[in-house]
Structures are given as C-alpha cells and as structure tokens.
Fold this sequence. Notes:
The complex is a heterodimer.
Chain A lengths: L1 E7 L11 H21 L2 E6 L7 E6 L2 E6 L9 E8 L2 H15 L3 E5 L10
Antiparallel strand pairs in A: 1-5, 1-6, 2-5, 3-4
Chain B lengths: L2 H24 L2 H22 L5 H20 L4 H7 L2 H4 L8 H16 L6 H12 L4 H8 L3 H17 L9 H23 L10 H17 L4 H14 L25 H14 L7 H14 L8 H14 L3 H15 L1 H9 L12 H12 L3 H14 L3 H16 L5
Amino acid sequence: MKYMIMMFGGLGATLQNRTPEWITGMHELMMKLDTELKESGEVVASHGLVDPSQAKTVRFTGGVPVPTDGPFAEVKESLAGYWIVEVSEERALEIASQVVAYTEYPMEVRRVMHGDDAPQQ
Amino acid sequence: MSNGQRVGDLLRECAPQVLGALVRRHGQFDACEDAVQEALLAAAVQWPVDGIPDRPRAWLLTVAGRSLVDGWRSERARRSRERATALDPAGHAPAADHPGAGDRDADDTLVLLFLCCHPALSPLSQLALTLRAVGGLTTSEIAAAFLVPEATIAKRISRAKQQIRNAGARFEMPPRVQRAERLGVVLHVLYLVFNEGYTTSSGPVLHRADLTAEAIRLTRVLHRLLPGEGETAGLLALMLLTDARRAARTDADGSIVPLAEQRRDRWDTAAIAEGQALLTATLGTVPVGPYQLQAAIAALHDEAPTADATDWPQILALYEVLAEVAPGPVVTLSRAVAVAMVHGPTAGLAVLGTLDGDDRMAHTHRLEAVRAHLLERAGDPVAARESYLRAAAATASLPEQRYLTVRAARLHQLPPPA
C-alpha cells in the first residue's frame, strides 16, 4: 500500500517562538527519518514545500479563474511537506508518530489511490 | 578507480567525438544525437560486464550508426544510400583513429558546444542538451541532477533539437563576427551548470558534486580548445576557486556554514593553486571580463588564512570594477557586503537600499538574507530577525531555509536592547 504522510506546520510563522535548539532538533529528526526511509526503500517520493506565504490561490470568481496571493488559511493548517511511502498502514502511522512526538504538529496519513493514473512500479 | 567509473569517464570523453563524427557523416544532428545516446546506454550496460573494447570510439560509432539506421528503417524513409554507409563499420570506424583525428575531435566538440548553446534555445534547454550531447550524460542522470522526472528532460531535449532545426542551424562553427557573442552564451551555460550543482535552486541537498564536476570538466575542455580566451580561463579559475571550498560549506549534518565560519584547513589547496595559476597567466594579458574579476575576488577569499585577514578593501575595489564591466543586481548585492566590511554595516545597508523595488530581486531571498546579516551586525536584532524570516519564507532551498530560520530564532532569544 502507498500512503501519503502530510505534515502541517513547521514552517515560517509556526516556528516564531521556538528556540534555535528546538528548530535544529526538528531539522535533525526530519533529515534522519528521511535518510532512514530512503535507505530502507520505503519512501516513494518526498518533498518539502516553500513557505505558504509564497503561495498563490486560483479561485473561480465572477465566472473566470482569478489567481490571488496567498491561501488565506491559517499557516498552521498549511501543508509543509509530504512523504509517499510504500508500507503498511500501521508502519505509516508509526512514521508519522515519530515526527508528531517531537513537533506536536498534526500529520495526516492517507492511502494513495491506484488506478490508471500512473504505472505501478 | 572502479571499473564502472572508468567506463563512465571514457564514455563522457568519447561522447562528443562520436557525435561529431556521426553528424559530419550523416547530417541530421537531432537523429544522430539520439543514436549516440542509445550507444552510450548500450556501452554503459555492456562494457562493465564484457570489458572495454579495444577501440571504444569505433565501437560506439558502429552501435550509434546501427541505431541511426534502425530509426530510419522505422520511419520507412531515406533508406538505401545512408543505410549502406552506416551499416558498414569498416567504412568509417577507423577514421577516428587516423592521424589528425585529434584536431578534428577537438573541433567537433567546440562546434557541438556552440550548437547546443544556440541562442534560439531557453537556458534550461541549452543546459540539458549540452549535458547530454557534449557531456555524454544520460537523460536519467540529467533528470536526477535537476530533480525532475526523466520524461521532462527527454521532452526538453527533443524540443531543443527541433528548435535548432527550425532556426536553420548547421553543424559548423558560427560565423566569425558572431563568435564572441556565442562564446558568451556557452560560458554562461557552463556557469549555470556549475551553479546548479554548487547552490541547488531547490531540494534537500546543498551541493551536487556531479554537476559541478561536469561543469569544470567541460570548461577545462573549452579552455584547452581556446587557450587564448581570457573569459574561458577566468570561468575555469572561478569554478576551481569556488569549488575548492565545497567540503567546508556544510557541516556533518548538512547545515550551511557561512564563509567566515568555515574551517579553512578543509579547503582544497590543489584546486586553489590551479585557479590562482590560471588567473596569474590570464589577468593583464587580455581584456578583463566579469568571470576573471569574480575569480580574482574568489582568490582573495581563498588566500586569506583567517576570515579576519580577508583583504576586503581589495575585494571592494574589484567589485567596483565588476559593477562597471557587468552591472546587475547580484553584483550590487555582493558589493554591499564588501562596502559593509570596509565602511561598516550602515554603509552596506545604504547600498542594499538601492535594490528595493528592483523587480529582478523579487524572486530571490538573497536581498533579505544579506540585509538580515547587516542589520544584525548593525545592532538591530528586531529588524534583523524579521529580515531573516522573510528570507526563510522566500527560499526554495531546504538547507538555506533551515539556516535562516535558526538565525532568526537565535535573535529572538536575545534580551531586547536597553
């Protein structure tokens, strides 16, 4: 099974009141976990996303798509990055728990659909 | 050196020579380039197992020739004459080993560089095509280096070749009157390859040594072919003098170490010496250009035994010349740092102020990152912290984002100024 593990928070404004040691600790944890997942071959894809303040949102306004600055959502609710891992649900939840135990930010674990969208490797 | 690495090095060296020979024989740069790629892929699989053939170039030429013919056959066109020629390896394979073949290989490599850096192409297409056709990299290697899907690179390359065809470009040196301008484009493409490897524009790893190594290798080839071109020598020196600091740029866990805090005993002294020698042989003998000036600045940094011993007045003087020869926002940014080191952070901040509202700086975090450093040195932690956070929000490089976030957090802990 493939699962997408999505991290919310951990960028820009959510870090404003954290100490440098806490931030460095988070970076170390993320990098260590990322390396482990790559070495074990469990990770299919992983990406971090640029700060949500840089995002644009396209909305259907007045009958046409209109791009505007920002998602206008709480930064804490913004997607900061994701892993796609090929593991059991139990293992996916365990991976997410390792991060949440440190950051205390929520992570969402969702199964990736399969069908005719992409060749299965 | 491992067998696989030896094969890789040999293939990269042969790639432009084989492509040159094939194009001179058959024309059709785009089809020949595909055929050579096929041959390189076949060699990469077979040679490590079967051993390197006695005449590797002849082998590649034969396999590429067959692949070319297969392509024609599947098109069901242009059959007879070309196929007869291409199917006969004896007819052309030994040619590359004849006396004088060395010169022609060299000329071919140069022509290929100019062709792949054709002004009709976008910089990204120039990069991809140069790395494949001249550098001998496979599509998947290029895709991995740029962190994009292989299909994206494949499409970019085939579109680039079509644009070259549409532009009516031929496999020959550009006319003499255009040569200086076209050489400028070639140098810029090599510079971009280097920079992409040295400071990756996105992704988790700060430098990808394979791209910088490839940029240095190709620039070295170009410098050997055009030893009298000062800017080619300057670019090679710049790459060597910059890459010499690579090992010290990140610490054990991959975090950025700024120049002033780097362990200078980890710098590559051989690369520094080679860069210095190139500069010494070049400066003053030819008209000075931006790459030579940047190399001279890099050399001053490399020569300083400690950060405090850096000859900032001399660096500032070089930036002033650079600002006249090749003005631009990135030069202004670096000059602001030098001004700050010589005349104090407030003077540096004033230079930075001239970049506010410059659209060319809108998509980079560097202006805010430099401002943050200068504000911190000027004793304004509150404004510095805001600048660090703005810079962190704007960067797409994970190590830089981490570095800037931590710098901001450090200032947050300081007691407010009394």
